[in-house]
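Forum > Structural Biology > Help requests

Title: Can anyone predict the 3D structure of DoxX family protein?

Hi all, first post here. I have the sequence for DoxX family protein but no way to get a structure on my laptop. I'd be grateful if someone could post the structure tokens.
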Amino acid sequence: MLNTEIWTPRILAVLRIVAALLFIEHATMKFFQFPAAIPGVPYPLATIMLVAGAIELITGALMAVGFYTRAAAFVAAGEMAAAYFMAHLSQSFWPAINMGEPAILFCFIFLYFSVAGGGAWSIDGIRRPIAATT
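Reply #1:
Sure, ran it for you. Structure tokens for DoxX family protein below:
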């Protein structure tokens, strides 16, 4: 039988790390056009895109290492909600059509981290071992 008390915080940490690295990738696409430029986005970037990239880079890095995970995730979730309503919803009501599915998924994954914390393998867990696993 699977011991969920052992595996739940570990799988939460894996999800946190992978989601944070994917979030950082969005920032590197904005700032460095790596691994590619964002399709359809003119350069130099508009101020709102620079702010979004800064939020993605900072909160992504914090979440990747699990430092102030709850606060970083809350800010990142808010950015993704704003991105969906500002950039995607105006194109169509349906997420599959307006290409907003990643923004919705990031928003709710980060909202979950803002409540659940970083799980295992986090700086938060080293600083407060009890709070990181509850």
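The chain has seven helices and no strands. The CA atoms of residues 24 and 57 lie 5 Å apart.
Shout if anything looks off.
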